[in-house]
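Input/output pair, single chain:
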Amino acid sequence: MSSPIVDEALVLSSVDYGEADRIVTLFTRERGRLSAFAAGARKSKKRFAGALEAGTHLRARLSERRGETFRLDGVDIVQSFHRLRDDLPRIARLLYCLELIRELTRDNEPHAVLFDGLKDYLQKLEAKQAGPTSLLLFELDALAQAGFMPNFSPCALCGQPTGERPRFDPEHGGVVCFACAPRVPNGFPVSPQVVEALARLQAGERTPMEPALRARAREMLNVFIAHHLGRKLKSVEFMDQVGAD
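Output:
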């Protein structure tokens, strides 16, 4: 019989299974993303009451099962983030971040830095200390940790400055200069101001971006993420609907 496992975890999502159970997708600090079978989770008010809501920070007690799934034996809630759940824009950002991490990571691949980054962002989001620009910063950090960092400066193809007429092509890693544009037929023109702002943000600058600039930056990242994942994240539409940005 395998030894019990105790790990920090954030609930990425959960789905009902059968009449009483749930399959929970957790992002754990030491083991990365994993699926866990929570027996009786829909009926047990003592073992899992309120603990399997999306985003909840847990100390999870797990047992390994056959295959790539685990059994969730018990949990202790570290932080529920309940204060942000009555605010639709913040709920939208929460769900977007969880979906992004779920799609960027693979089962049983540890990402401790990414785990800490997600936890820290959710804590700031609940404390109302995470402005709209901080979401872009979180995305850029998450993409870098997952090995999908977009290139904003210099040109992704020739290494020269991107200049006044840059184009964006996620297939070639990001922004290219006008001279290299013929080599990226699927690229599209982007504002040099947006490119510069994203490059500064990627370099660690924390200055909030103007709403119009931020909207264009979000469009670029949405295209980049959709290209590398093969689909647009479902939570993007929800963020648009509730004005989360």
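The helical segments are 88-104, 112-126, 132-145, 192-202, 211-229, 234-242. DSSP finds six helices and eight strands in the chain.
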